[in-house]
Specification:
The protein is mainly alpha-helical. It contains 14 helices and 2 strands.
């Protein structure tokens, strides 16, 4: 790897470093500490895993706000099963729950031709209601001996495995290429033999698998699970969505899988920093909203430029073919 490429990859981590430096100046006693750095990294792991999980969905045009409620329900299922099977109960309970929920969502989305964002709100209400009924509106506690997956080194091992899997799917699999083709131009993708409904079905199932892992981490680090009410779970997804959008903005410098790590670190640092300076909750929400608008704007500009480039290339190809036909 030459120096230029290495510098481009390092640019991807400028946003979290810049935010960290700001709060290191404001709260040096808190941020100039190895313990704080480790805490930020560990907190960012769940956000990164959620962002990886929704990345294929988002790229293929599926906006699903129900994943937060799905994580809560999977956590409840994991805690109940842990009482019978310990750590394996958390794992199997979360996986079984999200696979069933994911299959239900994928089938409904395929059958009901409605905007994914709209139908995901209905999913959120349904899944949140199920978690509230299952948890009986109480916080379910898991035994301390069953929380090892939320501790080092297991947490880092999970992070590496899930990131590696996403990197392989995104960069080297035909599935990842098909998802990008659908996100780029669905009409051209269909003409190339790609079946969007089948691909989106798979993106929903992959997202649910990653939500199971996020639920396992949430239960293991929080030593329990709690039900969600109504649309309250949607806010838990915004940090991961912003991490995804930042990754897309940085896609010119680094693979999106790595970009998600930068995004998750950036917004985790921001969240911890705002708490450290005693920022009121309403102001914090305002920062999140402004940040999301900025990222969406940057993402929209980048997408428009990419489409313009593709159209220009297609026009040039048609012109060359016409010139060749005349000759």
């Amino acid at each position: 790897m030459d120096i230029k490429k290495m510098m481009e990859k390092l640019i991807a981590f400028v946003p979290p470093m810049a935010v960290y430096l700001v709060f290191a100046v404001l709260r040096p006693e808190t941020f100039l500490s190895g313990g704080t750095l480790l805490m930020i990294f560990m907190q960012s792991i769940q956000s990164a895993i959620i962002a990886w999980g929704i990345s294929f969905n988002m790229t293929a045009g599926v906006v699903d706000f129900s994943v937060g409620a799905e994580i809560a329900l999977a956590g409840v299922a994991g805690v109940y099963l842990s009482r019978l099977m310990g750590v394996w109960g958390i794992v199997l309970g979360a996986l079984a729950c999200t696979m069933v929920v994911g299959l239900f969502k994928a089938i409904v989305m395929d059958a009901v031709k409605v905007n994914s964002m709209v139908i995901s709100i209905a999913f959120t209400y349904i899944i949140a209601s199920l978690s509230a009924l299952a948890a009986s509106k109480t916080t379910l506690v898991v035994s301390a001996k069953d929380t090892v997956l939320g501790e080092l080194p297991f947490l880092v091992a999970i992070f590496i495995v899930m990131g590696g899997l996403m990197y392989l799917l995104n960069k080297y699999s035909t599935f990842g290429a098909k998802v990008r083709a659908i996100g780029g131009n669905e009409t051209i993708a269909i003409s190339s033999g790609i079946r969007p409904n089948r691909i989106r079905f798979m993106t929903v199932m992959i997202a649910s698998f990653y939500m199971a892992v996020a639920a396992i981490i949430q239960v293991s680090r929080g030593a329990g699970a709690a039900a969600t009410q109504g649309l309250s779970s949607m806010s838990s997804v915004f940090t991961s969505m912003m991490a995804y959008f930042l990754a897309m903005v940085l896609a010119g410098f680094v693979d999106s899988t790595i970009g998600v790590i930068s995004g998750a670190l950036c917004f985790t640092v921001l969240e911890v920093g705002l708490i450290s300076v005693n920022m009121p909750a309403n102001y914090k929400n305002c920062f999140v909203g402004v940040g999301l608008i900025v990222l969406l704007t940057a993402f929209g500009i980048r997408t428009a430029r990419q489409k313009e480039k593709i159209l220009r290339q297609q026009s040039e190809e048609r012109h060359l073919k016409a010139e060749a036909a005349k000759a």
